[in-house]
Design brief:
By secondary structure, this protein is an alpha/beta fold. Among the domains are: 145 residues, Rossmann fold; 119 residues, Rossmann fold (3-Layer(aba) Sandwich). Helices cover 32% and strands 21% of the residues.
C-alpha cells in the first residue's frame, strides 16, 4: 500500500486490531441469520509525510450508506459545541444576510440549524440519505453527494461559493484526502475560510484511544500532516485551536493559498500554528519511536476490560453498557466481547434501538430497559461523553449501581 497523500510506500506499523465489520453497520434481527462482512483493521504510518492511515479494504459507499445510523444531534454537549461555534464564527467573520455558510458532512443539521436561526444563508453537503432527510425536516437545504473537486467546481460555477465552510469530524473519513481538500480551495470565496475539526493524533496516542480506529476513519491526523496536505492542495493553515471534544481535537482554520493579505492570517494565528508544530515535534511525532508502543497499550486495555467483565460475572454482578458508538464497537470486537458477558447496550437513538451491534451482535435497547433491569455496573462505551452520560443516568446510583469506562484505563466510579 502507498500513502494516500504523498504516494510513498507504507512500511511502519501503528495498530493491528485483527479484523472487524464496519463500525456503523448495525444489524437487524433478520440480518442475524446471515453472514457479516469483516475487513482487516490495520493502521500504518507514512514515514515521509507522517500521515497515519488505515489499509484500504472498504470503499466509502460501503461505509456511508443510505441508512447510516450516526446522528449528531443525540449528544447535548455536541449541540452546545456547535451552537458556540456558530456564534464565534459569526462574530469573528462578520457573517450576515449577505454571507454564505456551507457545512461539508452536515449530518442531521445539528450545526446548520444555528446558522439558519441566525439568518445567515447556508446549505449542507451530506452523502447519507438518513441524516440528510433529518436535516431537511429542519428546513435546511442539503446536497446529497460526496464532496470533492468535481462537486466544488459545479457549485462554484453556480455562484454558490462560501464565506465559511465547516468540516467537523469528516477530514479523517475521506479515502481521497487530496481531492477532498482541493475541493475547499475551489468552493471558498477569495477571502473565505474553512474550519476543520478532527481528533488530534497526539491526544489519541497520549490517551491510549485505540478505539477511535475503525474503517470509517481512513486517516489519523496531526497538524504536521494536515499542514502538508493543505499546502499541496491550495490551502494554507492560518490558525489552530485545541479542543476537549472527542478526547482532544484540533480546530484548524484554513484559507485559500492564493488569497493575498487574508484578514484571518494574523501574527497571533501564525504563532499558535508554529507553537503546536513545535509541540508535535517535541513529542516525537516526526520519528518512528512515537508510534511504536500503541499496539501494546491497546492490548492492555483489552485485557483490563475482559478481566473486569469476567470478575463481574464471577461475583454475580450484572452489567449493561451505554452508547452504541463506533468506538465501542471497535473495543468490543477487538476484545471479543459477546452477549454472554455484556447482554445489552442502551442508546438514545431510535434508529439504533431494536438492532444489534456489528460483530458482537449485542442487542441495542432503549433507556427503559436499563431502568427495568437495574444493572450493578454500566459500562460507558463513548468515554469522551462520560460526564454527560453519568449525569443523564445518575438515577443508576439510586439502586447502588456504578459506572465504568475502559479507556484510557479501566475505571469504576
Amino acid at each position: 500500500m502507498k500513502c494516500r497523500h504523498c504516494g510513498q510506500p507504507l512500511h511502519l506499523p501503528f495498530l493491528d486490531l485483527g479484523s472487524a465489520p464496519p463500525s456503523n453497520a448495525y444489524l437487524s434481527e433478520a440480518a442475524l441469520r446471515g453472514p457479516e462482512t469483516w475487513f482487516p483493521l490495520r493502521v500504518l504510518v507514512c514515514a515521509h509525510c507522517w500521515l497515519v492511515q488505515t489499509e484500504d479494504h472498504a470503499g466509502r459507499e460501503a461505509l456511508f450508506t443510505h441508512d447510516y445510523a450516526y446522528f449528531s444531534s443525540f449528544s447535548s454537549s455536541w449541540l452546545a459545541h456547535a451552537k458556540a461555534y456558530v456564534q464565534s464564527m459569526q462574530q469573528r467573520l462578520g457573517l450576515g444576510a449577505d454571507s454564505c455558510v456551507v457545512e461539508v458532512a452536515s449530518n442531521d443539521g445539528y450545526l446548520l440549524q444555528y446558522v439558519q436561526q441566525a439568518g445567515i444563508p447556508c446549505y449542507g453537503i451530506e452523502p447519507t440519505a438518513s441524516t440528510a432527510k433529518a436535516a431537511r425536516a429542519l428546513g435546511l437545504t442539503v446536497i446529497e453527494r460526496f464532496f470533492g473537486v468535481a462537486l466544488a467546481n459545479e457549485l462554484a460555477q453556480e455562484g454558490r461559493q462560501a464565506d465559511l465552510i465547516a468540516a467537523n469530524n469528516v477530514l479523517a473519513h475521506v479515502p481521497d484526502i487530496n481531492d477532498f481538500v482541493a475541493g475547499f480551495a475551489r468552493l471558498l470565496k477569495p477571502h473565505g475560510v474553512a474550519t476543520f475539526e478532527f481528533p488530534h493524533l497526539l491526544r489519541m496516542v497520549q490517551g491510549c484511544q485505540f478505539d477511535t480506529a475503525y474503517h470509517e476513519h481512513y486517516s489519523y491526523l496531526s497538524l504536521t500532516a494536515v499542514q502538508r496536505i493543505f499546502a499541496a492542495n491550495g490551502l494554507v493553515v492560518v490558525d489552530v485551536e485545541e479542543l476537549p471534544t472527542h478526547g482532544g481535537s484540533l480546530r484548524v482554520m484554513a484559507a485559500r493559498a492564493d488569497a493575498a493579505a487574508h484578514p484571518q492570517a494574523t501574527s497571533d494565528g501564525a504563532a499558535r500554528v508554529a507553537q503546536l508544530l513545535t509541540t508535535e515535534a517535541a513529542a516525537g511525532m516526526l520519528g518512528e519511536g512515537f508510534y511504536s508502543d500503541f499496539q501494546s497499550q491497546s492490548r492492555r486495555i483489552k485485557h483490563e476490560l475482559l478481566s473486569f467483565l469476567l470478575q463481574c460475572h464471577a461475583e454475580g454482578l450484572t452489567v449493561g453498557a451505554y452508547g452504541a458508538a463506533a468506538k465501542g464497537n471497535t473495543l468490543l470486537n477487538f476484545a471479543g466481547v459477546r452477549p454472554d458477558l455484556l447482554p445489552y447496550v442502551v442508546d438514545k437513538n431510535p434508529a439504533k434501538q431494536g438492532q444489534y451491534l456489528p460483530g458482537s451482535r449485542i442487542p441495542i435497547v432503549d433507556e427503559a430497559h436499563l431502568r427495568a433491569h437495574r444493572p450493578d455496573r454500566v459500562l460507558i462505551l463513548p468515554w469522551n461523553l462520560r460526564s454527560e452520560v453519568a449525569a443523564q443516568l445518575d438515577y443508576v446510583r439510586g439502586w447502588g449501581g456504578q459506572f465504568a469506562v475502559a479507556v484510557p484505563q479501566l475505571e469504576v466510579f
